[in-house]
Every structure is written in C-alpha cells, then in structure tokens.
Amino acid sequence: MKLLVAAPRGFCAGVDRAIEIVEKCLQKYGKPVYVRHEIVHNKYVVEDLEKKGAIFVNELFECPKDRPVVFSAHGVAKSVFSEAEDRNLQYVDATCPLVTKVHIEAKRYHKLGYQIIMIGHKNHPETIGTMGQLPNGEVLLVENCKDVDLINPRDEKKLAFVTQTTLSIDDTLEIGNALRNRFPDIVAPHKEDICYATTNRQNAVKKISPLIDGLLVVGSINSSNSKRLVEVGKNAGCRYSQLIDNVNDIDWRSISGSKSIGLTAGASAPDILINQVIEEFKKRFKATIEFIEITKEDIQFKIPNSIRN
Question: What are the boundaries of each domain within the chain?
Fold first, then answer.
C-alpha cells in the first residue's frame, strides 16, 4: 500500500501562537493558568496543556480573580473583554490575527453604516466572537444558500459580508455568489477571509484526491477546518473520507484492499498524531510513504509583549 501524505498539514501559525501563549503564561505566572474555552479545537492539545497546569473553563465567572486567563484562538465577543475588565481579571488574548482581521473588517464597515452578513456556522466560537463585535442585529448569519433567501436586511444597498476563516473554499464561494445575486450592491471582503492554512490544506487534499482510494484526516470532531477537509475529500471523489482523532480511530476494514490512502490533518492537529498514523501504516502494510507538497508555509505570528520574555 502507498500512503500519500499531503502538505501543508497540521499546525498553522495561529495555532502555534495560541499554544505558545498558554505555555508562556504558565512559565511566567505558574500553575494554574485559566483558559476560556478550548485554546484550539484538538483533544490531544487540550489534554497536554491540562497536564502542564492549564484549566479550561466555559465562562469567566469560573476563573478566580487572582489568576490569569487566556482567551482562545477563535476570538471572543467584546462583552467578554468588558466582563474581564469589570472583574479586574488579568487576561491574555490568543485570538488568531487572521480572525482579528475579520473583526476589524466588520467594525470598519459598521462605522460606515453597513449592516454585516456573516457566512459561518451557528454556535461556532469564531462566529460567536465575530458577531459579538457589534451590537445585536448588526450582523446577520447565513450558513448556506437557503439562508440567503430568508434574511431581511434593513437596507439592501448598505450591506457587506465577512466569513468564518475555517470554512470550505467552494461552499463559501457559492454562498458569496448567492449573496451577490440577491444583493448586487453588497460589499465583499477586499481579500478572502478564509485563512491561508485552511486554503492550503484544502487545496492539498484536492491535489492528492485523484491519486488515492481513501482519505484520513487527523483532527478532533469539534474542529471546523478538519471537518471541511473530510468534505473536500468526498467532493473530490474519494470513495472513503474519514475524520480520526488519532491512530486508534482508524477503521482498518474500510481501507483494506486499497492501493493508496491519503493522509492530512487539520490546522489544530499536532505532528505527533500524524506521525503515529504514518508509523502504523509502515508496520501494518510495509507502506511506502510519499509526501506531496503544494506550497511551503513560513508565516509566524508574534505573541503579546506582556508574556514574550
């Protein structure tokens, strides 16, 4: 059997930065450091940080006043910052800079009098955080093309749209076109909101899909970008496309008899989990490993000055 490993895969710059922020806070302030929501959507990463002294909570009222709290990479609503300041909590914002860019974009259009439409998934932390940058009613959510027909903006000539950064490129393009068709005057983002890492990983899957019988995507079930990779594989023609948290989740019967299997990982999945899958394929099938890289990623994001040293 041949295992085709897509690249880029795994950690992106925003995930690297968020994890480093938690680790730096632990070094600077000692244990425990509180983190509001999962710092990134990966079970292994969360459990590893818990072992180091991080405590993950759902809401700020669970945090004591004398310990620092980190906000997750997905971003938070303005009300969360206000609550932290009202309680005099020491907080560090680990929001991915590419998510922050979308926040800034939404606020800029709001100041110009536009109502915002967000393409995103309801209840996803990033969507909640972005919509929470503006007053209620100023951001309308659409999850699919059907939603585009149902929304009722106050002024069809004063609309702009933004998107969640971890969506499917193809689905987002389709919804964006539906918005343009219904609202010809709508203002689109100057640059695609979907992040470089999401785009690169989806394009890499499209590249290897014609060469494989099945696709394995390493990533947790609550990881939006990982689930989109599974969908991209299915849409590209893979007869089998499956999300796995780790090597133990692989359904070996489903891929038995395959000549070639593809492997990739969501942007929040660590290398150790990917390497475990590769080693298991070598052991079970004496598989030959081929790496297919569509582009190199060298982006890095700085951590906040308050914890840099």
Answer: 2-11+195-293, 13-96, 98-182
Q: How far apart are CA 271 and CA 191, in angstroms?
A: 30
C-alpha angle 38-44-48 in degrees, rounded to nearest 5: 80
Q: Is the pLDDT of residue 173 over 90?
A: yes
AA letter at 271: D
Count of Cβ atoms closer than 10 Å to residue 270 Cβ:
18
**CATH of region 13-96:** 3.40.50.11270
H-helix or E-strand spanning residue 230: helix 224-235
Bridge partners (DSSP) of residue 293 are: 7
Catalytic residues: 126
Q: At residue 134, does pLDDT exceed 80?
A: yes
Q: Note whether 272 and 280 are within 8 A (CB).
A: no
Q: Same CATH topology for 2-11+195-293 and 98-182? A: yes
Contact 207, 233 (CB under 8 A): no
Q: Which residues contact 168 (CB under 8 A, 6 or more apart)?
A: 202, 228, 231, 232
Nearest Cα neighbor of 236 from 264, 204, 265, 259 is 204
Question: Among 65, 2, 6, which residue's Cα sits nearest to residue 219?
Answer: 6
Indicate the CATH number of 2-11+195-293 among 3.10.450.10, 3.40.190.10, 3.40.50.1010, 3.40.1010.20. 3.40.1010.20
- Whether 244 and 215 have beta carbons less than 8 Å apart is answered as no
Separation CA 240–CA 249 (nearest Å):
14
198 close to 226: Cβ distance less than 8 angstroms: no
Point out which residues pair with 34 in neighbouring strands. Answer: 55, 69
In the predicted model, is pLDDT for residue 190 greater than 80?
Answer: no
Q: Which amino acid is at 6?
A: A
Whole-model pTM over 0.85: yes
Q: What is the pLDDT of residue 308?
A: 84
Query: Does CATH number 3.40.50.11270 belong to domain 98-182?
Result: no
